[in-house]
Design a protein that fits this description.
Blueprint lengths: L9 E3 L14 H20 L3 E11 L8 E11 L3 E12 L4 E14 L14
Antiparallel strand pairs: 1-3, 2-5, 3-4, 4-5
Length: about 130
């Protein structure tokens, strides 16, 4: 992902209940935040409901700690007829805002859904 991330789609502070036995934030919690942010971007682009259909090669680069502020950035990387790939990058801001640490990134694939929850074509962009 480029250095120009733009504004985060989601900004969250993990809570004590989100910590695992190692003192880090659960990976599933992070994945959930990523899916929420990607879903916001995908739904806006589809102008409809969407569903996550795949997550490509998510790797945890650094742990998320209690008191980190998590910023989730999401950008559309590719589109197809009914689907789109949303690149997600998660940055942890720690030490009272003095340090930003990239903790993970992944490519989420979403499909646009019609009123029967079946894939439908993405609307054309003007």
């Amino acid at each position: 992902m480029t250095e120009t991330r733009g504004e985060p789609i989601l900004r969250v502070v993990p809570r004590p209940g989100d910590i695992n036995a190692n003192g880090h934030i659960f990976g599933g919690w992070v994945l959930s935040q990523m899916d929420i942010a990607a879903g916001i971007v995908a739904s806006r682009r589809a102008n409809s409901s969407v569903a996550t259909v795949a997550i490509e090669a998510m790797e945890f680069i650094a742990p998320i700690l209690l008191h980190d502020v998590i910023s989730v950035y999401a950008n559309i990387e590719r589109t197809g007829r009914t689907s789109m790939g949303i690149r997600i990058e998660v940055i942890a801001t720690r030490n009272r805002g003095t340090e930003d640490v990239k903790v993970t990134e992944a490519l989420f694939t979403f499909v646009a859904l019609d009123e029967n929850n079946r894939p439908r074509a993405l609307p054309q962009l003007n």
